């Protein structure tokens, strides 16, 4: 088996007294797209910078295709890097921006021309070669930045919040472009830093969830979404309700039975084994909560918000547990303040409580 494209082994990064990254172990396979997802300040950019060589790890090693590059400067690592504010050279035309890394590598002129045309076409910017960055929109500048990063045909492309400076419509468009680009570059590994779960879900094969300078959880995208192990992942990825439940029966491998507000459900212990009698958190996505006029668990409807594609309902179960639901229609539901019935499906993940990890 070939070595992973990227490997971080116990990488810690300190800035003075701030620990920005704590003993991160992470691998990215060849051609794989990994999203680093987490709230602001969780250490995502620092992890990416450690791969790029922009920060030096306090401890640990960084390997690219099996080679230890911890002591190499960024330009010797052969990576493509795109950051949120484009960072194009303002005094250079588009074609020269894209050619920069190729010329630095002393590639023959004719080949540089061909490569520049190839990558500019790839990002739909072939007609803009003669423009200066200031003559381009934000989205166009970001396309050029991606073309520049791809020009050297890097085995790994590092993207740090590449869409965050763009407006919502353009973000959607660029996300679709990035997906298409992935199809054209099946061998290029992608490390994608974002705090936007939608981008991570759309682009990544695997997601690494970060919090407070630590890796909370890493796994295939659909697994992290459907079977999160920790409360933090469940709430950050998909905004799950975290309902305090009591474990009634836990037969080992299979589903557990849990109790909440007098009702019992089957739940999947994704966070590890649970014992009967223990308290745990059930992760329930708002769109899986059913709300009706009667039957189910008794609750009170506290608020209704229209969200365009549907409605968000704030509820409170008897006993005081808050619960959020998303429904497509409120036809037939009583007014705010009234009592309703709530159903929660079997099979929701039973996650570990606490800081997560
Ligand atoms: N150059 C620096 N000097 C001092 N502290 C830094 C520096 N860069 C980052 N930090 C600190 O390290 C921690 C992690 O920062 P990092 O930029 O990796 O977070 P992030 O998850 O990428 O956040 P964001 O989404 O806001 O960019 C933060 O507490 C930040 O303040």
What's the helix and strand layout?
Blueprint: E1 6-15, E2 18-28, E3 33-37, H1 44-52, E4 59-64, E5 67-68, E6 80-82, H2 94-104, H3 109-122, H4 138-150, E7 156-160, H5 168-184, E8 189-194, H6 197-203, E9 206-211, E10 214-220, H7 221-226, H8 231-236, E11 241-249, E12 256-260, E13 263-268, E14 279-284, E15 290-292, E16 297-306, E17 311-317, E18 322-327, E19 339-343, E20 348-351
Parallel strand pairs: 3-8, 3-9, 6-7, 7-8, 13-20
Antiparallel strand pairs: 1-2, 1-4, 4-5, 9-10, 11-12, 11-14, 12-13, 14-20, 15-19, 16-17, 16-19, 17-18
Helix pairs in contact: 2-3, 2-4, 3-4
The chain binds adenosine-5'-triphosphate.
Adenosine-5'-triphosphate binds at residues 15, 18, 20, 38, 40-46, 195.
What do you see in this structure?
The protein folds into two domains: 6-226, P-loop containing nucleotide triphosphate hydrolases (Rossmann fold, 3-Layer(aba) Sandwich), CATH 3.40.50.300; 231-351, Nucleic acid-binding proteins (OB fold (Dihydrolipoamide Acetyltransferase, E2P), Beta Barrel). Helix 2 crosses helix 3, helix 2 (94-104) packs parallel to helix 4 (138-150) and helix 3 packs across helix 4. The chain starts with 5 loop residues before the first strand and ends in a 6-residue tail after the last strand. It has eight helices and 20 strands. The strands form four sheets. A six-stranded mixed β-sheet has the order 6-7-8-3-9-10, with helices on both faces. Strands 11-12-13-20-14 form a five-stranded mixed beta barrel. It has a five-stranded antiparallel β-sheet with strand order 15-19-16-17-18, with no helix packed on it. 40% of the residues are buried. Strand 11 (241-249) and strand 12 form a beta hairpin. It has 357 residues and is an alpha+beta fold. It has helices spanning 44-52, 94-104, 109-122, 138-150, 168-184, 197-203, 221-226, 231-236, and strands spanning 6-15, 18-28, 33-37, 59-64, 67-68, 80-82, 156-160, 189-194, 206-211, 214-220, 241-249, 256-260, 263-268, 279-284, 290-292, 297-306, 311-317, 322-327, 339-343, 348-351. Helix content is 23%, strand content 34%. The structure holds adenosine-5'-triphosphate (ATP). Adenosine-5'-triphosphate binds at residues 15, 18, 20, 38, 40-46, 195.
């Amino acid at each position: 088996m070939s070595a992973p494209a990227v490997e971080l082994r116990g990488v810690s990064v300190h800035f003075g007294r701030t620990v920005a990254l704590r003993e991160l172990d992470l691998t990215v396979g060849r051609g794989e797209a990994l999203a680093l997802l987490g709230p602001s300040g969780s250490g995502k950019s620092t992890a990416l910078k450690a791969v790029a060589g922009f920060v030096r790890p306090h401890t640990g090693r960084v390997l690219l295709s099996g080679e230890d590059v911890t002591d190499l400067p960024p330009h010797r690592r052969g990576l493509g890097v795109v950051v949120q504010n484009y960072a194009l050279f303002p005094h250079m035309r588009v074609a020269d921006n894209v050619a920069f890394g190729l010329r630095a590598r002393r590639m023959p002129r004719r080949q540089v021309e061909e490569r520049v045309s190839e990558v500019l076409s790839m990002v739909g910017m072939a007609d803009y070669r003669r423009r200066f960055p200031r003559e381009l929109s934000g989205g166009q500048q970001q396309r050029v930045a991606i073309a520049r990063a791809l020009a050297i045909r890097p085995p790994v492309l590092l993207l740090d919040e590449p869409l965050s400076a763009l407006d919502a419509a353009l973000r959607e468009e660029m996300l679709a472009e990035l997906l298409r680009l992935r199809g054209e570059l099946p061998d290029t590994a992608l490390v994608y830093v974002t705090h936007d779960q939608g981008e991570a879900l759309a682009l990544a094969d695997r997601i690494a969830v970060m919090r407070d300078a630590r890796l909370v959880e890493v796994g295939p995208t659909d697994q992290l979404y459907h079977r999160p192990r920790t409360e933090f992942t469940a709430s950050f990825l998909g905004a799950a309700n975290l309902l305090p439940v009591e474990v009634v029966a836990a037969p080992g491998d299979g589903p557990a039975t849990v109790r909440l507000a007098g009702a019992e459900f089957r739940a999947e212990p994704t966070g590890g084994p649970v014992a009967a009698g223990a308290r745990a958190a059930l992760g329930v996505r708002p769109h899986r909560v059913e709300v009706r006029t009667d039957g189910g668990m008794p609750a009170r409807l506290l608020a209704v918000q229209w969200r365009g594609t549907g409605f968000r309902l704030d509820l409170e179960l008897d006993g005081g547990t808050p619960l959020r639901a998303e429904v497509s229609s409120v036809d037939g539901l009583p007014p705010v303040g009234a009592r309703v019935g709530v159903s929660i499906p079997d099979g929701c993940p039973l996650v570990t409580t606490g800081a997560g990890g």
